[in-house]
From TrEMBL:
Native source organism of the sequence: Trichomonascus ciferrii
Family that this chain belongs to: Belongs to the actin family.
The protein's name in its UniProt record: Actin
InterPro entries in UniProt: Actin (IPR004000), Actin_CS (IPR004001), ATPase_NBD (IPR043129)
Gene3D superfamilies the record matches: 3.30.420.40, Actin, Chain A, domain 4
């Protein structure tokens, strides 16, 4: 991890929560790593009991549905989020939210209404004394230790590319897409089920399994339940298996992958054991199932309407689009050479973050793709090699920001007194 300056304790320590599409990270400001990482999804049973945290969420309970409170990387289910944040404060930290300032993050396309709702939840539901809402790409640059950087964030449900220049998030130059990690999961399950004939059994259904030879049928002992689990619970559990496959077996080719030209023996094979004990080695499909991340329109799939894919942009198009907008906006300045200087600075600090970016070969492929558009520039990457650190890049940056001595002096906070006086409309002015 690259930190630009030592983290110093401010007058007040805050609770920092980053609510991502797949996982939420929570910890104290001024620390390098979050104290807790837990699923953002939650369960709710027939009696309207909520299930938060990995153990409770994954427990098979008849009638329990599983939901995500986020859509397109932004919070939609505010009732659930209010309960979730309270759960983090009271059940995980064992703290009273009324006594601890609250810092959280947002995507740059977060709508104004969401900013207001975040204030309402913070001050009316949790009754925190102070609240701050930080832009995720800015946090990533603070973690890198430099004020300028091109933030490429590829998570479960969203991929985004955001230029940050001298601490200013260039929102109008940013791009984002819903074709990210979950999109890869769809291609993986499509290949496994339709081309390999492998039905994915969730882990919770298996009571006991035995070791089998590669490719031989498995003979597991299945658990029995008084009634089947809900479809949403099953879908979530299958998604966990697909994510494990993606993280342990999938690989990104360093250049566009073409089965007709690649030497098969150079690909190698990688084994994967399914929850039933069935295991198989995978070769070319490790690459073919990740290629849609870069050209989604070329890989139609039944689960997504053709019109949604026709204009879909891959990671390389997002990067080029963002940098092209930087050039366009910088060219309108009266400062000579500003566009050239900005592009050079951005490409000298390319920040890679998000769980999907951990696939082997991803960073090398990004380097290849950017070089096709900008062959004369030197490319420098800021990439945490440790998986937990890369997944926590945004959280760590938020922790750094919240601990800086001048943070409160820059009107980055809203106090309970200000909220009581001006209301939720203050969010649009304070958190532009």
């Amino acid at each position: 991890m690259t930190i630009g300056r030592p983290i110093t304790a401010d007058e007040v320590t805050s609770i920092v929560i980053e609510t991502g599409s797949a996982f939420t990270r929570a910890g104290f400001s001024g620390e390098y790593s979050p104290k807790f990482m837990l699923p953002t999804a939650y369960g709710k049973d027939r009696e309207d009991k909520y299930y938060f945290g990995e153990t409770a969420l994954n427990e098979p309970v008849p009638g329990k549905e599983v939901y995500s409170p986020l859509t397109d990387g932004c919070i939609q289910d505010w009732n659930a989020i209010s309960k979730f944040w309270r759960y983090i404060y009271e059940d995980r930290f064992k703290l009273d939210p009324r006594e601890w300032p609250f810092v959280t993050t947002e995507q740059i396309w977060n709508p104004p209404e969401n900013k207001k709702r975040s204030l309402e939840v913070a001050f009316e539901d949790l009754q925190v004394p102070i609240f701050s809402l930080l832009k995720a790409p800015l946090c990533a640059t603070y973690e890198s230790g430099r004020p300028t950087g091109l933030v490429i964030d590829v998570g479960a449900s969203v991929a985004s590319v955001t230029p940050v220049v001298e601490g200013n998030v260039m929102a109008r130059s940013a791009y984002h897409s819903r074709f990210a990690g979950d999109f890869i999961n769809l291609h993986i399950v499509n290949h496994l089920e339709k081309q390999r004939g492998i039905k994915i059994t969730p882990t919770y259904q298996v009571q006991r399994k035995s070791v089998t030879e590669t490719g031989e049928p498995a003979n597991p002992v299945y658990r029995t339940f008084p009634e089947p689990m809900t479809a949403s619970y099953d879908t979530y559990q299958i998604g966990r298996v697909l994510t494990e496959f993606k993280e342990s077996t999938s690989q990104v080719a360093e250049a566009p992958f073409d089965l007709n030209t690649v030497h098969m023996q150079r690909l190698g094979a990688r084994p994967f054991e399914f929850p039933t004990g069935y295991n198989l080695s995978f070769g070319p499909e490790r690459f073919t199932t990740t290629e849609p991340l870069f050209k989604p329109s070329l890989f139609p799939i039944d689960d997504i309407p053709a019109e949604a894919l026709s204009n879909a942009q891959g990671i390389s198009q997002l990067v080029n689009g963002a940098l092209s907008r930087v050039i366009s906006s910088s060219s309108q300045s009266t400062t000579p050479g500003l566009a050239e200087a900005n592009i050079k600075a951005l490409l000298s600090n390319i920040i890679i973050t998000g769980g999907t970016s951990l696939m082997q070969g991803f960073v090398n492929r990004i380097e290849y793709e950017i070089a096709q558009y900008y062959p004369t520039y030197g490319l420098t990457f800021t990439v945490a090699q440790n998986a937990s650190e890369r997944k926590s890049t945004t959280w760590t940056g938020a922790s750094i920001l919240a601990s800086l001595g001048n943070f409160g002096q820059e009107q980055s906070w809203v106090t309970k007194q200000e909220y009581d006086e001006y209301g939720a409309d203050l969010a649009e002015k304070r958190f532009k």
